[in-house]
Design goal:
Length: about 400
């Protein structure tokens, strides 16, 4: 399932066939956005739907296939549903007819592994009400809300939304400042944004926009130049509190920035905000230990047209081969597609800044490598290491 194109909170709906998952989404949204049928297995592939929950945030609901699907095709549908567990922030387990068993327990076990919050909805209560003993048992076992619900009564919808707000991690509805602990009012921040074939026509890339907006929110004085104007800028006698550059021109600007001016990159700023920064710091120096034949996994958070100047698919692999002098192999995965082969087949994982995904999605993406003890890094930190300024580019955040 290709994701990675929306960093709104994702809410996954899981349950058996005909538990009323699609009806629930339609009821919550007040729209017929998912196909509903009395036939089992109407929902096949996961389907995303946007909706604004007032008082919380714009969210993405994900409707999934039944976790009790049958047959060879049914198993594929279940697998697609399970894959969405890696990209959600909140899960809703939908049951009906007071049925709760191994299907639901397996989903909940995986949610616990991923540290994803959830609650339970007993649907179709107008036909079969929720048994009080089952409700007490589930609340005691999982310490989560259990709601008796029917899509025939929209007066119950606020209860569901209130529950979502109640259990939602703070990270899903607040966006912490990227640089608020580093810069402040009237500080001068220099943003170095090269314009090459990778730059989108007529606009800036998202990490640059996000850092610019964050600096403005912190009432900084922001000056933006291309890498070709950095030298001229410093002739003006202005000393910025911080310089933030595109990682791919580290090699060029490192000698143009005075040694007493902190320097980092857009990618590293995002790495601290969204990624596993501690393990990035720990894993990046492993670059020096790479050997001939090592496989490197390159993870991108979005799908895009690849040019001859692509940072992740061209520049970093070429730079790594040159820096290490080793014959390295690279595997590229875009969006949140499945990782090919076993994670232990890779000597190292290098992740982009992650501007197009949620923090939860990015951390879950990195988790298999971290759990397996495989070194991880980030585009910007990798380039800083190879340029010899890894310590300088990360020092301000330590």
């Amino acid at each position: 399932m290709k994701q990675g194109k929306d960093n709104k909170p994702h809410i996954g709906i899981y349950g058996r066939r005909n538990a009323g998952k699609s009806s629930l989404i339609n009821c919550l949204s007040g729209q017929n956005i998912s196909i509903v049928s009395d036939l089992k297995g109407t929902t096949t592939d996961p389907v995303k739907r946007s909706y604004e929950i007032l008082g919380y945030a714009p969210v993405i609901f994900i409707d999934t296939a039944g976790i009790d699907d049958e047959g060879e095709t049914g198993q594929l549908r279940i697998q697609r549903s399970l894959e969405t567990l890696n990209i959600i922030d909140i899960a809703i387990i939908v049951i009906s007819d007071n049925e709760f068993g191994d299907y639901e327990r397996k989903i909940i076990e995986r949610l616990k592994e991923l540290k994803t919050v959830f609650f339970i909805i007993h649907n179709k209560s107008d036909i079969v009400p929720l048994d009080s003993k089952l409700k007490q048992s589930l609340e005691a076992e999982y310490n989560v809300p259990v709601i008796d619900f029917t899509t025939t009564n929209r007066d119950l919808v606020p209860l569901v939304f209130d529950t979502i707000k109640q259990i939602a991690p703070e990270s899903t509805w607040t966006f912490g400042s990227l640089l608020g602990d580093i810069v402040g009012e009237n500080d001068i921040v220099l943003l170095i944004t090269p314009i090459d074939s990778e730059a989108p026509q007529g606009r800036m890339i998202l990490p640059q926009v996000q850092v610019l907006r964050d600096c403005l929110d912190n009432h900084c004085i922001v000056i933006t130049v291309q890498d070709t104007e950095v030298e001229e800028f410093f002739r003006c006698g202005i000393k910025p509190r911080l310089a933030v550059t595109d990682s791919q021109v580290f090699y060029k600007v490192k000698n143009l920035i005075p040694s007493d001016v902190p320097l980092t990159s857009f990618s590293i700023v995002l790495a601290r905000s969204k990624g596993d920064f501690a393990n990035y710091l720990k894993g990046t120096p492993h670059i020096a230990d790479l050997r001939d034949g090592d496989k490197i996994l390159m993870l991108e958070s979005c799908s895009h047209h690849v040019s001859c100047e692509d940072i992740g698919r061209v520049k970093i692999p070429n730079a790594l081969r040159k820096f290490t002098g080793k014959n390295l192999e690279f595997t590229f995965v875009a969006g949140l597609d499945q990782i090919p082969d076993k994670i232990t087949d890779y000597a190292m994982l290098i992740q982009c800044g992650g501007c197009m995904v949620t923090r939860k999605q990015l951390l879950n993406r990195l988790k298999p490598a971290v759990d397996a003890g495989i070194p991880i890094s980030n585009y910007g930190m990798t380039l800083a290491y190879m340029t010899g300024i890894f310590d300088k580019a990360t020092e301000i955040f330590k």
